[in-house]
Amino acid sequence: MEQIKTENDGCQSDGVQLTCFSEESDGDVLLHFQIIRLRKQIYVWIGCNSASFGHLYAALPTRPSNAVGVTSLIGGSSDNTGFGIARRLVLKTGLNVVLACNLPKNNPMLEASAEKKLLHKLISLGYTKPQI
């Protein structure tokens, strides 16, 4: 888990915080991340091998049942790469999440690795809910 690029953590204006980083995954695949923290939501882009946008998902907590609603905004329904990540990010952060995911289809190990690296960064930035 080697960090490749430096982070851009200082870009704040009007409550917006931007964080960009890249890390190598298992198998020497370079993963790129961009996190934009807004007031009550986060936007996350995860990319691999190119800077394409990929599939776009919106996920939010529902009340009163504490369930999570997720929908695909851009991308086909046959490829759900990123759907689960968006759902779990809402559960971990309690925030609305917009996730753009450009990861190869049918590679669950890479998707799990990307989610793990993203979650570690969100924890270090203080974006997750306190564990009870």
* Dominant shape: globular
Look at the helices and sheets and give the structural class: alpha+beta
Query: Spans with pLDDT under 50 lasting ≥5 residues?
Result: 1-7
Number of strands: 7
Distance between the termini: 28 Å
How many strands, which pairing sense, and closed or not: the largest β-sheet? 7 strands, mixed
**Total helical elements:** 2
Organism: Salvia splendens (Scarlet sage)
InterPro entries: PAC4 (IPR032157)
Protein name: Proteasome assembly chaperone 4
Overview of this protein structure:
The chain has 132 residues and is of the alpha+beta class. The protein has two helices and seven strands; from the N terminus they run ββββββαβα. The chain has a seven-stranded mixed beta sheet with strand order 1-2-3-4-7-5-6. The longest helix has 18 residues, at 108-125. It is globular and about 40 Å long.
Short summary:
This protein has helices at residues 83-93, 108-125, and strands spanning 11-13, 16-25, 29-37, 41-48, 55-61, 68-74, 96-102. With 132 residues, the protein is of the alpha+beta class.
Strand and helix map with partners:
Blueprint lengths: L10 E3 L2 E10 L3 E9 L3 E8 L6 E7 L6 E7 L8 H11 L2 E7 L5 H18 L7
Parallel strand pairs: 4-7
Antiparallel strand pairs: 1-2, 2-3, 3-4, 5-6, 5-7
Protein name: Proteasome assembly chaperone 4
InterPro entries: PAC4
Pfam family, one: PAC4
Key features of this structure:
single chain, 132 residues, alpha+beta, 7-stranded mixed sheet, 2 helices, 7 strands, disordered N terminus, PAC4, Proteasome assembly chaperone 4
